[in-house]
């Protein structure tokens, strides 16, 4: 038995809990448009799957009790999609056969206050990252601009891996193109400096230790920056994206921190009235829902 597993759990208690929590939500609760007449109350399974970044088939198998060993990342994503409270998140972990999150671990549950904020920014490309720089939730505008992260496994949604991996590595361009009008070395230094702070805040977190070990092995750039005891500059800046639908688009990127929950909110915006703003508007209208092959400039 894994050290994260619990000894026993009631028969299909996970599926029953998931259905009950899905039934109590409305499209207004999660910031989705109401579409078509509904035979029953609550969200459709397809809507929850989309919000959580999992397949509809997998969510169906969880609800029916045919899938029994969801990962922590999947459980955290479903908890966010269902807008669970802290106590409900603990219960979800237990019925999924996992020990609840404990103090000292990097938070991966997006709090309701941040969820509400993101839902009101649906027209803006917004992504919420954990302290380990794993992408937790995002707007449809983010998916339209950078490709849908929901098509990738959680491991490939990590920004450290995306930035310091080889340029051809999967997941890189779906998270963050490199800054255009800002020194790339300074950006990397800022990112690693933030990761160093996270490692100090969560010294027992295996995920962080593994991320540092892996990045040190695969990236000479990471080894160089990690071995330099200097503070990084701000993470935002001007960013150039080569998009397959609208061509080159130059945006302002900003990173806002949520100290109480140790999360980072990244946004991409354009100055109103500019050609770049028009391109963003076009992308919003297309509502791209699939991963797009992007390249950084």
General description of the model:
- This protein has about 300 residues and is of the alpha+beta class.
- The chain folds into two domains: about 15-95, Orthogonal Bundle (434 Repressor (Amino-terminal Domain)), CATH 1.10.260; about 110-295, Beta-Lactamase.
- Helices cover about 40% and strands about 10% of the residues.
- Strands 2-1-5-4-3-6 form a six-stranded antiparallel sheet.
- Strand 1 and strand 2 (about 135-140) form a beta hairpin.
- The protein is globular and about 55 Å long.
- The N and C termini lie far apart (about 45 Å).
- Residues about 1-10 and about 290-295 have low confidence and may be disordered.
- Pfam families: HTH_31, MLTR_LBD.
- GO terms for molecular function: DNA binding.
- InterPro entries: Cro/C1-type_HTH, Lambda_DNA-bd_dom_sf, MLTR_LBD.
- This is Transcriptional regulator.
Taking strands numbered 1, 2, ... along the chain, how are they ordered across the largest sheet?
A: 2-1-5-4-3-6
Order of helices and strands: HHHHHHHEEHHHHHEEEHE
Please report the first level of CATH classification, the CATH class of the largest domain. Answer: Alpha Beta
Mass-distribution shape: globular
Terminal residue distance? 47 Å
Question: What is the domain total for the residues?
Answer: 2
């Amino acid at each position: 038995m894994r050290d994260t597993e619990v000894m026993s759990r009631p028969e299909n208690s996970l599926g029953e809990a998931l259905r009950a929590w899905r039934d109590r939500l409305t499209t207004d609760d999660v910031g989705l448009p109401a579409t078509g007449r509904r035979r029953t109350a609550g969200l459709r399974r397809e809507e929850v799957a989309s919000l959580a970044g999992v397949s509809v088939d997998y969510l169906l198998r969880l609800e029916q009790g045919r899938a029994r060993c969801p990962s922590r990342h999947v459980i955290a994503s479903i908890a966010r999609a269902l807008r669970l409270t802290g106590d409900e998140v603990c219960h979800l972990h237990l019925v999924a056969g996992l020990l609840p999150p404990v103090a000292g671990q990097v938070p991966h549950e997006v709090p309701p206050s941040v969820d509400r904020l993101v839902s009101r920014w649906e027209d803006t490309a917004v992504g919420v990252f954990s302290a380990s720089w794993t992408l937790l939730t995002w707007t449809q505008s983010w998916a339209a601009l950078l490709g849908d992260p929901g098509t990738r496994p959680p491991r490939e949604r990590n920004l450290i891996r995306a930035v310091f991996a080889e340029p051809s590595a999967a997941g890189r361009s779906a998270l963050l193109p490199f800054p255009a009008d800002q020194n790339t070395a300074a950006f990397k230094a800022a990112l690693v400096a933030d990761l160093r702070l996270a490692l100090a805040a969560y010294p027992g977190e295996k995920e962080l230790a593994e991320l540092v070990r892996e990045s040190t092995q695969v990236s000479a750039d990471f080894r160089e920056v990690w071995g330099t005891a200097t503070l990084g500059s701000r993470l935002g800046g001007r960013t150039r994206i080569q998009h397959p639908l609208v061509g080159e688009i130059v945006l302002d990127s900003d990173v806002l921190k949520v100290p109480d929950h140790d999360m980072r909110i990244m946004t991409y915006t354009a100055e109103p009235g500019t050609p770049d703003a028009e391109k963003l508007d076009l992308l919003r209208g297309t509502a791209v829902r699939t991963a797009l092959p992007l390249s950084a400039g």
